[in-house]
Design brief:
Double Stranded RNA Binding Domain; 43% helix; two-stranded antiparallel sheet; alpha+beta; 12 strands; two-stranded antiparallel ribbon
Length: 216
């Protein structure tokens, strides 16, 4: 509007009177206020998840519609959000713009760096409301919840056996393909699962079961 336009000439920026963050547009300031009030006026009419911004709701809808309007012009992989596409581009350029100031590990995405920091801070903000176990990642909590719900969303397309985690499904596939990815560095015998290799190591160490885990 006219008042917002006038601010572009005066270099005066509307700011939040709670945290003093500045904005170029009054609309962005109004949306920002909701981070303090926790107000979420926009609701998904499919799953009823609530959002503080209409743009966030519009992005969320793509989970339900499977719409992926952003495409990588290198490998043509498609994405539902432009921010994810921008982060994906860095996998082609090998650009890692975000660095941990504790251990200096580098990341493609700021979100990945934020999650990584929890290794150093020991922060576990996600808690299971059944057994109260805590996790540093939301995805880890989601996987854990399947212990309680018995949900197994990953299915083998060869034998149709179902699994709660994709990693377990990938390991299971090797039983069909005879793929053996884990090799003993003593006798070079190969195994399809790391847990099998760990048990095998005890035959070399002549250990009693569960005394210690040589393969970890």
């Amino acid at each position: 509007n006219f008042n917002e336009h006038c601010l572009t000439h005066t270099n005066e920026k509307p700011y939040c009177d709670v945290c003093h963050k500045e904005f170029t547009r009054k609309g962005d300031l109004n949306a920002h206020y909701r981070t303090h009030t926790n107000e979420k006026p926009y609701s998904c009419d499919v799953c009823h998840k609530e959002f503080s911004r209409k743009s966030s709701l519009n992005e969320h809808y793509r989970i339900h519609t499977k719409e992926k309007p952003y495409s990588c012009d290198v490998c043509h992989k498609e994405f539902s959000r432009k921010g994810i596409l921008n982060a994906h581009y860095r996998t082609h350029t090998n650009e890692k713009s975000y660095s941990c100031d504790v251990c200096h590990k580098e990341f493609f995405q700021k979100g990945s760096l934020n999650i990584h920091y929890r290794i150093h801070t020991k922060e576990k903000p996600y808690s299971c409301d059944v057994c109260h176990k805590e996790f540093s990642r939301k995805s880890s909590l989601k996987e854990h919840n399947r212990i309680h719900t018995k949900e197994k969303p990953y299915s083998c397309d060869v034998c149709h056996k179902e699994f709660s985690r994709k990693g377990i499904l990938n390991a299971h596939y090797r039983t069909h393909t005879n793929g053996k990815s884990y090799s003993c560095d003593v006798c070079h015998k190969e195994f399809s699962l790391k847990s099998y290799l760990n048990v095998h190591y005890r035959t070399h160490a002549k250990e009693k079961p569960y005394s210690r885990d040589l393969g970890s």
